[in-house]
Structures are given as C-alpha cells and as structure tokens.
Amino acid sequence: MTRTIIIGDIHGCYAELISLLHKAEFGPDDRVVAVGDLIVKGPANQAVLELFSGDPRFSSVIGNHDLAILNSWRGKTTLLNESQRRTRVELDANKDKYEKYLGSLPFVIDLGTHAVVHAGVRPGLSLSQQSPDDLTELRTMGTDRTKRDGTPWFDVYDDEKIIVYGHWPSPRPRLVGRTIGLDTGCVYGNCLSAYILETEELLNVPARQSYQRASPQFLRQLQ
Fold first, then answer.
1. C-beta separation of 32 from 7 below 8 A
2. Based on the number of CB atoms within 10 Å of its own CB, is 120 exposed (0-12), middle (13-18) or buried (19 or more)?
3. CA pair distance 132, 45, nearest whole angstrom
4. Beta 201-206 vs 31-34: how paired, if at all?
5. N or C: which end of the chain has fewer CB within 10 A?
6. Environment class of residue 144 by beta-carbon count within 10 Å: exposed (0-12), middle (13-18) or buried (19+)?
7. CB 15 within 8 A of CB 48
C-alpha cells in the first residue's frame, strides 16, 4: 500500500526528520508531504532542501519562512529576522538551485479528502479563493491574521476537506473538528510529528535539542 506521510514544520531539523521517516518505516512506494517551513531556525537547512528537491517522493507547500527567503532572493522588499538572515547566508552558495526549488512550491496540496496548507484557510472560501497571506500566516479570525489572541480559524472551520496544517506550534498535534495541526515545535526542543493519511496514525520523535527559544506562550504550554 502506498502511504502518504504528512510531516509538520521541519525548520531545518534534518536529523529529526530522518528519525521520523525511520520510525514510519518510510518505503520506496510511500510519499512525504510537508506542511511548509522546511527551513529557518534549525541547524541543517541545506540538508533538508537537498532531500526534498532531490527525491520525487518528497513534496511540500511553501511556508512563511520559506517564502521570506524566496522573496529576499527575488529582490522583493523583505525584512528578514535574525534566523532568516542566518539561513540565507547558509544557502546563498546554492542560491539559484534553492530559489528555483522554493519557487516551485505550491500554497496548497490537494489530497482529495484532505488538503495540506502551511497556516490555515478562511472558512467558507474554496481553496482556490484563499489568499497567499492566509495560507502562509493565518492564525485567528480578527483583522490581524497573525495574532495568537482571538478565535482560531480551526475553531470555525467546518468545510468539506480535512485541512492539515502547521505554523502554530503546540505540544501535541491539534485535532480540532475537520483540521489536523502538525507543528509540534521540534525546533524549540519538543518533537517532530507526522500523520499517515491512509491509516490515520500519528507519529512523533523527540527533538535532539532546542535550536531556538520558543515564544512564552509555547513555553507555558510545555509546563
């Protein structure tokens, strides 16, 4: 049976990614779909991009950090934070290759019963009507899509497809209504998570270390 292994935010955590694939017994007929943010914050961004760009079994939507690096390379006005600047320096030697790869990543991967996005979707709008900003940054339903305070989009969503997403870390996968959140803060020292579509199985492996300090909100959730 061909399996679809959907993986949460990797953020350059290559060693944990390989451990998770080993735990999932990733085989030649399986495929991996990532929720974006392949890079930035973690220690091995180049290794992650080499794996995803070099193996046709691997695909991903684009995340907000991936997009920031891409826009910077393309000369768009982009204010990079410290982690993003470090990642760009790490990747600049292979800029042309990685720019082409990141530029090929879609905002949505439709898997039939499920759809993979990085951050979220506006309830009531079709996938084709979603804005790139919402797909890469949405958290709550207020005027500021990036805020953590307010009504989360996944508390309101009740459309046909099950949405699998990342972007907003939590200690464990978020299983709310018809949504599955897979960002479990690996880069902050928690774990890297995956969802196997065909068996509805959730897997995770612990982070080897904390690579970047988490937000106070996430740290409180871990207590």
1. yes
2. buried
3. 23
4. unpaired
5. C
6. exposed
7. no
Task: Please report how many Cα atoms fall inside a 13 Å half-sphere around the Cα of residue 20, on the Cβ side.
Answer: 27
In tens, the pLDDT along 44-87 reads 999 999 999 999 999 999 999 999 999 999 999 889 999 999 99
What is the secondary structure of 81-113 as a DSSP string? -HHHHHHHHHHGGGHHHHHHHHHH--S-EE-SS
- SS3 readout for 57-88: CEEECCCHHHHHHHHHHCCCCCCCCHHHHHHH
- From 202, 137, 205, select the one nearest 168 (Cα to Cα): 137
Whether the model clears a pTM of 0.85, i.e. scores above it, the answer is: yes
Q: Which domains are delineated in the chain?
A: 4-222 (3.60.21.10)
Amino acid at 99: E
